[in-house]
Amino acid sequence: MSFRWYGADDPIPLQYIRQIPNMRSVVSAVYDVRPGEVWPRESLAEIKRQAEDNGLIFDIVESVPVHENIKLGAEDAEALTDVYCENIRRCAEYGVKCITYNFMPVFDWTRTQLDKAADDGSTSLVMYKEQIENLDPLTEDIHLPGWDSSYTRDEVRSLIEAYSELGEDGLWTNLERFLKRIIPVAEECGVRMAIHPDDPPYSIFKIPRIITNEENIDRLLGIVDSPANSLCLCTGSLGSAAFNDVHKLVRKYSAMDRIAFMHIRQVKLLEDGSFEERGHLSKNGSLDMYKIVKALADTGFDGYVRPDHGRMIWGESGKPGYGLYDRALGAAYINGLFEACEKAKEE
Ligand SMILES: [Mn+2]
Q1: Residue 196 a catalytic site member
Q2: Model confidence over 114-129: pLDDT tens digits?
Q3: pLDDT by residue (tens digit) across 31-55?
């Protein structure tokens, strides 16, 4: 069991994280270095020291971001990949066993609102299709939550045009080249690379997205057939589209030992394809958490797990999706499901 922590700027102290039952690992990263630059050893040493001072282990990184020029296959892609490999080696030097990353162009996760209130007064992240469909990043200055606001409108426009030209095939080619370089390095240092699915798992604004469904995940895992080339299987991201049977995918890839990291999150899919993040409990959303955890227990899963986004509850404020209370409730619930599934196996 693990918990994401945003370092010294995180309002949640490690002391509190440690008090969540069964908490083992800190999931963190060096946040003050831009993509494409080497992470200072002192920064990694500092995260490790703080984790250990609080009885926790720093062995999961989320994320080492992939520079856009690697995804685009630009002239400096090879040099940037060298830097990426160096970061894998440095993380390993400080005890890291699993590195999360994604290969989503331009924009990270996409939502239309971060504090949608539910009937009980809790708030969560949502994506309503009708709010996205009317937007055009080529003509408007769009500021959706979660997007890198340091891009100017012109930069966004030229990036979108470059990716539209590249298309899915080009993005696959660049991912393939990247994996063939980084996976041998990860193998050498005993690190499992865990790619996070695109969130949501389909193209938005005609920008290609490829880590989206079973067929594409099979293709990804086949590029380098090694446990070092694995998934960060995020139930909420894959579950944000009706075409993904998340329960089946968890069982399949866990049985293949290709899940290094599980992000367990609940989503409620709405009829028009919109979705709302919800509390972890099965009956609150579209995903059956018992089935997901049972699939892991049945297949002998021994990778990392963390509760993914939670709601904001009990008057907490902070980074949307990353409050203490609801993620701690999620961890407790997931612990309970694991205990029940493991004990049922012994009976
Ligand atoms: Mn996730």
Answers
A1: yes
A2: 999 999 999 999 999 9
A3: 999 999 999 999 999 999 999 999 9
Query: If you average pLDDT over every residue of the chain, what do you get?
Result: 94
Q: How far is the C-alpha of 217 from the C-alpha of 252, rounded, in Å?
A: 11
Q: What are the start-end ranges of the H helices in 103-213?
A: 129-133, 153-188
Q: Considering 84, 94, 322, 333, which one is annotated as catalytic?
A: 322
Out of 59, 101, 234, 325, which one is annotated catalytic?
A: 234
CA of 263 to the centre of ligand 1 (A): 5
322 part of the active site: yes
Active-site entry in 196, 232, 247, 333: 196
Going by C-alpha positions, the residue among 2, 119, 96 that lies closest to residue 41 is 96
At 250 the pLDDT is 98
Q: How far apart are CA 211 and CA 202, in angstroms?
A: 9
Using CA atoms, how far apart are residues 273 and 132, in angstroms rounded to an integer? 12
Q: Does the structure show a pLDDT above 70 at 68?
A: yes
Q: Is 247 a catalytic residue?
A: no
- The torsion angles phi and psi of 336, rounded to 5 degrees, stand at -65, -45
How far, in Å, are 1, 4, 21, 80, 175 from residue 331 at the CA level?
8, 12, 8, 36, 33
Dist. CA 133 → ligand 1 center (Å): 24
**Segments forming the whole domain that contains residue 178:** 2-346
Measured in Å, residue 255 CA sits from the centre of ligand 1 at 20
Q: How many residues does the chain have?
A: 347
Catalytic residue list contains 234: yes
For 122-159, the pLDDT digits (tens) are 999 999 998 888 777 777 777 676 666 677 778 888 88
- The model's pTM: 0.95
CATH of the domain at 45: 3.20.20.150
Structural domains of the chain, count: 1
pLDDT tens string 304-347: 999 999 999 999 998 999 999 999 999 999 999 999 999 998 88
232 is catalytic: no
The catalytic position among 309, 325, 326, 333 is: 309
